[in-house]
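Thread: "does anyone have the structure for this chain?"

Original post by V.I.:
We have the sequence but no experimental structure in hand. Need at least a predicted one for the grant figures.
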Amino acid sequence: MEILSVEHLTRVFGSGEGTVRALDDVSLSIEAGEFIAIVGSSGSGKSTLLHLMGGVDRPTSGTVRLMGEDIYRRTDEQLAIFRRREVGLIYQFNNLIPILSARENITLPALLDGRAVNENRLAELADALGLDGRMNHLPSQLSGGQQQRVAIARALMNAPAVILADEPTGNLDSRNSAEVMGLLRESSERFKQTLVVITHDEDIALMADRVIAIEDGRVASDARRT
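Reply from O.Q.:
Generated one for you, tokens below.
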């Protein structure tokens, strides 16, 4: 079943001689439960594609549909709510708030929505991601791998259907990278979520069900692993 689709997506930055066509008429379809790796050189447009799929930026033209609904028919305020509730966004730099504990960082999206924290889900995530005993620690008191696990837990906290990760291990050593990706894969399978990961790491790409290569703002190849 299709969960996310991109149709004729184009994103242009600047104007005149300074125009940059970051994405150029990209179309693709993603099935529920897939683990997809998006690869490409720096500047190829892969991060732009991920940000547009996550409602972070608006396209110049084209559509992004989540479960059949064009997300860009929403206002900016509605898109902010969409990012908190319907997709989970994970970045290379975990964007944790330094004065908040791990627990507070993880539950921040729910608190911003004025909703009660689902304590059962929080406990389940802490257990699945190995954060038991670290929930009251500040980010500065956590290792790099632990900080990234907190960011993953925050993305998973609201049980979104789609997880979008932009170089989630790019700031980690090889041991922590393998650990974090294993946890991401395990969590997505455990909570029945679609996982889309931007990566330069060939080992991560080999973990995926499907690898999409982006070059010069276009889909250069799209291959399912057998």
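V.I.: this helps a lot. Residues 33-57+75-224 form a domain with the Rossmann fold fold (CATH 3.40.50.300).
O.Q.: and The chain has a mean pLDDT of 86.
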